[in-house]
Write a structure and sequence with these properties.
Blueprint: H1 2-36, H2 41-63, H3 67-79, H4 84-98, H5 103-116, H6 124-135, H7 139-150, E1 165-169, E2 172-175, H8 176-183, H9 192-208, H10 216-239, H11 246-255, E3 261-262, E4 265-273, H12 276-284, H13 290-300, E5 320-321, E6 325-326, H14 330-335, E7 346-348, E8 351-361, E9 364-365, H15 368-398
């Protein structure tokens, strides 16, 4: 019996020894692999640099209109981030990129945004998710999503609060903040009760016209309109960079001083009659409109301004009429006449004068500092064409434009 026990114990010890030996060999193998694969510091540094460059490269591609390529880089950069606020910024960039043109991708990004920013106060993520589901003709999913989104507990807020719900359309809530933004489109203040009606009509028309988003003709029209709008917006932005030196502005002010400093003056049409019999004939049926006055100029006037139907382009600022000469007491006489009607007669050594006064301006004495903004606008307007030409020349050079005139 003792002999049998001894044999069993020897077998048991032998089995345990084998297991220990096997574990040891495995451990040595793992350690060997570890030492065989050294970590390259250069590689780690390079990865960090690449990650930082993802974002700037993505932004450059986005500015040039490479949507999917830019999105791919934003996704790669997103994978390297740990800061939630930075992640939200990158996801927001992706939403702008994908928008309604790539609805499936946009939905994925919006889902991530909602999970990262559940307290998002303006509910823009939820609204866009709903709109995209509707766009994809998933009406049931959209309505279910809307119910689940609006059933969450909300802070109702007080009157005037941005988060206050002021209306709803089939469960989709309209917030006070939307009403405030809508009010900015109106030059004058409009009462909120009138404003909300117009905002709701706009939203209803947007919903009613949603099928157009799938219409090929509308897509083509929208694409062209958006392209034109982008170019127009860009050009306005570029033209705003057109800077003018103080020296040039002061020179322009002095050269055009008559626009900023002048006495009381009038714009008018003139009729001069020499013979008294003609004056009586004219007054027997006086003109009641500018057109009738111009016809009378053709018939009765002896003045050289007859060639322009009596109209004088220059502002009358003193007792002098171009192509006629000095008319004593003219400015004092005009002061007491009405605009846009036939004047009373004014006698001078030249004959009897009649006027049709188009406009009147009071005296002005604008010094340079007061007129500076007016001067700058006028200068830019006159020199904008030259600025644009220089700008376009640089563009042609930048993009290496080759023009084959012989093929035109």
């Amino acid at each position: 019996m003792e002999e049998i026990k001894t044999k069993k114990m020897v077998k048991k010890k032998s089995g345990n020894g084998f297991l220990v030996l096997l574990n040891g060999l495995i451990l040595l193998f793992v350690v060997g692999l570890f030492f065989k694969t050294p970590v390259s510091k250069a590689a780690v540094t390079t990865d960090k640099i690449d990650h930082q460059e993802f974002k700037s490269a993505a932004i450059r591609l986005k500015s040039k209109g490479f949507t999917l390529e830019s999105a791919d880089l934003f996704h790669r950069y997103y994978q390297t981030l740990f800061n939630p606020s930075e992640k939200i910024k990158i996801l927001s960039q992706l939403v702008d990129l994908y928008a309604f043109e790539h609805p499936k991708e946009t939905l994925k990004v919006l889902s991530l945004l909602e999970s990262l920013d559940p307290e998002e106060k303006s509910s823009q993520y939820k609204k866009m998710t709903y709109d995209i589901l509707k766009l994809m003709a998933k009406d049931k999913d959209a309505e279910l999503y809307l119910k689940s989104a609006t059933s969450m507990s909300k802070n109702i807020g007080t009157k005037g609060s941005k988060n206050l719900v002021v209306a709803s359309i089939k469960g989709e809530e309209v917030y006070y903040s939307e009403l405030e933004n809508f009010a900015k489109d109106f030059p004058q203040k409009v009462e909120n009760k009138d404003l909300i009606s117009q905002l709701l009509v706009k939203k209803l028309l947007q919903k009613e016209s949603e099928p157009l988003l799938q219409d090929p003709d509308f897509k083509s029209f929208a694409s062209k309109s958006l392209s034109d709008l982008r170019v127009s917006f860009f050009m306005n932005k570029e033209m705003s960079k057109f800077e003018v030196s103080e020296f040039d502005l002061k020179n322009y002010y002095q050269a055009n001083l008559f626009k900023y400093v002048y006495p009381k003056s009038y714009k008018l049409s003139h009729l001069l009659i020499k013979e008294e019999t003609s004056v009586s004939q004219f007054l027997s049926s006086p003109p009641k409109s500018l057109q009738e006055f111009e016809s009378a100029v053709e018939q009765f006037s002896i003045d050289l301004n007859k060639n322009t139907q009596g109209k004088i382009e220059a502002w009358i600022q003193k007792d002098f009429i171009p192509l006629t000469g000095k008319v004593t007491g003219l400015m004092e006489f005009l002061e007491n006449q009405k605009l846009s009607s036939l004047s009373s007669p004014l006698k001078s050594s030249k004959g009897t004068h009649f006027f049709w006064i188009h406009n009147k301006r009071e005296a002005q004495d604008l010094k340079y500092e007061s007129a500076k903004e007016m001067v700058k606008r006028a200068y830019k307007q006159e020199h904008q064409q030259n600025f644009q030409q220089e700008y376009f020349t640089k563009l042609f050079k930048k993009y290496e434009v080759v023009l084959h005139e012989d093929r035109l």
